[in-house]
Amino acid sequence: MTNRTTNLPLDSEGIPILTELVSTEELLDADTTTRYGRYNRMSTTEIAEELLSSELFQRQLDEVASELSRNLRLQTEQALGTAIEDVISKTLDRNNARSFELIRVQLEDALPELLAKVLQDQDVTS
Q1: What's the CA gap between 83 and 81, in Å, rounded?
Q2: Cα 18 to Cα 4: distance, rounded to the nearest angstrom
Q3: pLDDT of amino acid 34
Q4: Is there a contact between 31 and 22 (Cβ–Cβ < 8 Å)?
Q5: Cβ pair 36, 30 in contact under 8 A
Q6: CB neighbours of residue 47 within 10 Å
Q7: How many angstroms separate the CA atoms of 8 and 30, rounded?
Q8: Would you say 1 and 34 are in contact if contact means Cβ atoms under 8 Å apart?
Q9: Is the per-residue pLDDT at 18 higher than 90?
Q10: Out of 21, 47, 93, 124, which residue is the most buried by the measure of CB atoms under 10 Å away?
Q11: pLDDT per residue over 26-36, tens digit each?
């Protein structure tokens, strides 16, 4: 089997589109001529153990875990934000105009300090 180092065309998701067929004979030759041929003689458990102990696999696993963690946090923040907005809206709708005004005044009084703290925590202030 020849070593093909050409650039493969990619589909819209970045997955290579294979354009050349490999014959059964080439696959059988590859078993004895490539470094991957030894996997044919290993059990699935041995292959899994080797993959799990691989530094590259561990880095990829870390990347997947990190991405999932970021996505979970974003979804949680979005869900909580919507829920909090709904609760505040319903509460304000149930109260009379006086309660609304008292809450609004308290929020306006507290908002500058809260914003300053958030900006300071995020190092956004200049």
Answers
A1: 6
A2: 12
A3: 54
A4: no
A5: yes
A6: 13
A7: 20
A8: yes
A9: no
A10: 47
A11: 766 665 555 55
